[in-house]
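This part of the workshop introduces the protein records we will be handling. An example says more than a description, so a record of this kind follows:
>
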Amino acid sequence: MKTTYQKLTKVSGINYLYRHESGVYWGRKKFKGEKSATLKVLDTDNRKLAEIKLADWIKKKAGATAGDITLEGLCQKFVETKAGNREGTQKVYRWVLNRLEKEFPYFRTAVFKINPLEYTKFVAGLKLKPRGNNLFLEILGGILDVGVAGGYLLNNPLQELKKKGVKSRRRVNRKPPNTPTIEQAEKIVAAMYNKGDENGPLCSSDFLKFLFLAGIGEAELRTLKWSDVDWTAERIQIQRVKTGSYFYVPFYPWLKPFLVDLFARRKVKQGQIFKLKTIAIGLRNTCRKLEFKPFSPRNFRQACIVRQLRARLPVKLVAQYQGHTDGGVLIMKTYSQVISEMDSTYEKDMLANLK
């Protein structure tokens, strides 16, 4: 005779949901602290009702203890956690929240009752370009993370789908970065207008030069403090603003003299190194004055990465110094042209040594 489990068939696309030979739906899940999975008859042969009962059973059994909340409520809590972000970032958040409110049919449904596939189907239906699609998913994932942290969800539905092999992110065809040469960067830094703050935390040229020589992001540099600079170990401890994770940047040969000089010029040698909001407008005006094509602060960071690669620093180390955890995959994709040039030069050098 078949056991109860042998009579169950997994329902595709819904975690923990099974259908009995009789047509009645069951739930099956292993909860924390249990040695084996628990079976639960859901007493219905209606698929939609079974999904609701399954979610309610899991919620009561295992840990989403904060009560019911709709996606609308999660969005409100997400906005509260992001209140300190810049206006430009807030604008992107509002774009996502507005589209969810106007177009997502389950916006006012309890989040634990929403089928995870509904999220990816909805985003795919928006027909966004790859970058917009991935940005929307990233922010939606952040909203659902708030639900997990608040005890409204057991796990992030988007992450669960990813584990199951459901692909939602779209491939972005990355163009080679538009980076200034060393000569161009030095001319732009020298020509930057500093609003009378030649040696202080509002010095635009020092800020831009730091981006170029250290290869870190503009957001990270704005929050960097002198206490993050380890003069003994000759490295800079950096916290990624976007994720909160930490990584470090060593004193590159071209960075160390600038750091020593900058520290010597500063009267105040503690607290934030820079107190600038942005240098994008000043940089754009300087490029126009010098008749260069327009560069962004990000391009100066990218220029440092190009410099590292051309100096034959291993790709894995370059990625590590950017705070990446993919072992250099993103660096390889973005800077493939530079890497191929580097490999070609290396190959010629090696062949020249053959006798």
About this structure: The mean pLDDT is 85. The longest strand covers residues 25-29. The radius of gyration is 26 Å.
